[in-house]
Amino acid sequence: MKRTARALTALALTAVLAAAGTLTSMADNSDHTAENLATWAVAPQKKVTPQTPEQDEYNKANGRPLPAAELLQPALDPALGTYRPKPKNSLRGDYRCGASDVLADLSKKWIKEFQQQYPQVHISVNPPYAGSLGALELIKGNLDCVFVSRELKPSDIDGFHDAFGYDPLSIPISGGSYRHFGFLDSVGFIVNKDNPIDKLSLDQLDAALSTTRNRGGEAATTWGDLGATGEWADKPIHIVGLQPWNGFEEFVRQRVLNHNGERGEWRPGAADGSTPADPAVRWEKTVFNIAKDVEEDPYAIGYTGLAYVDQPVKVISLSDHAGDPAYAPTYENVASAAYPLSRLTYFNVNKRPGKQLDPVMEELIRFILSKRGQSVVGGQQVFLPLRSGQAKAGLDALNAAP
C-alpha cells in the first residue's frame, strides 16, 4: 500500500537518520559473569513485568519515573552544531504542547533552558502524558507540538492528513535508550542459542518476514536460505512477532519491511497463536513473552526490545545489506547509532506545505538539534544524544523546500 508523498519522505528521513551516526567499535555494557560475556553479545537481563493500571494512571498524570542510569554514558558528539540564539526579545508567545509519559521530564528540561534564552516565550507541557493522546490533540488543533517517544501510528498520520490535507512534520530529537524498560529501548532480533546464525542483513530479514519483499530477492523459508549449513539447512524458519498495531512492530516494519517508498506487509499470522509449520508469523499480543518463545523453539526468530531479553537467547548482529559491516546491539553501537535498529524520539508539529513554520516552534527544533540541546539529553542520562549526522539530517528536513 502506497502512502502519501510526505509520509514516504518521513520514512526515508528515518532511514537516513538510522545510518547517520558516527560508527564506533562494539562493546558490552552488562555486568554479568565472565562466562556469560564469553557466550552472549547481549547477556540475559532481569525480567520486567507490565505496568499496572495504577502505574499507567500515575504516569499519565506525572510522567513515568526515570530509571537508574546506565553505568556507561555516551560522549557528546563534538561535531554537533553550535546553537546561535536570536535576540532575547525577538521571540514571544504562549504555546501548549503534549508529551509521552517517558518524555515529560526531558521535554520540560529542553523548554526550561529554551525559555531562559527567550523569556517572553511560554511553553507548557501538561498532563495527560501520552503520545497517542497528544497526537489526537494535535489533529484537533488543541496543541502546538507533541513530543512522542516513537514513530507516529499510521492511523495518527492518516487522521492528521484527513484533517489538514497533509502530514505532520516529524523531526527526530534524540536517540532512544539502550535497554531501559519503557524508555524506547533498542530492538534486537533473537534466535535460539543453538542456532548457528550470528548475523543477518535487513534484506535477509525482509525476505523471511514479509510477503512484499520490498528489498528484493526470493522468499526465505528455511534457515539454509539465510546462510545456515549442514543439518540446519533444511530447517523451517518459525517467526515470532507482535500483533499489529504495536510500537515495536511498527518500528521493525518501517526499518526492515518498508523500502523504496513501499509499505511492507507481514507474512500471515497463525490465528491460534501456535507455532506455524511454514514461515508464517506466530503473533504475541505483548512483547513480554517473545524471548521465552524463542528460547523454547530451536527454529524460531523474533524481535524484541533489549529490556525484554530475559532468556538465554542469541541476539544477532545486523547489517543493512549483505557484505556491509554487521553491528551487535551493544551499548557503544547503540549510542553511536551504528546499530541499525537504534531508536529515535520525535517532535511533531503542524507545518502547512508552502508556509513558514511558526518561528518559535522552528527555533525550538533548532535549539534541540544543537550541541546545547543534545547536552540536555546527555545530562538526563536516560535517552541517548543524537549524533551529528542525525542532527544534520533533521535540520535538512526542517529546511527542505515544501
TrEMBL record:
Pfam families: PBP_like_2
Signal sequence coordinates: 1-27
Start and end residues of each PBP domain: 95-371
Coiled-coil annotated residue ranges, if any: none
Record's keyword terms, sorted: Signal
InterPro entries: PBP_domain (IPR024370), Phosphate_ABC_transporter (IPR050811)
PANTHER family, per database record: PERIPLASMIC PHOSPHATE BINDING COMPONENT OF PHOSPHATE ABC TRANSPORTER, PHOSPHATE-BINDING PROTEIN PSTS
Protein name listed in UniProt: PBP domain-containing protein
Source organism per UniProt: Streptomyces scopuliridis RB72
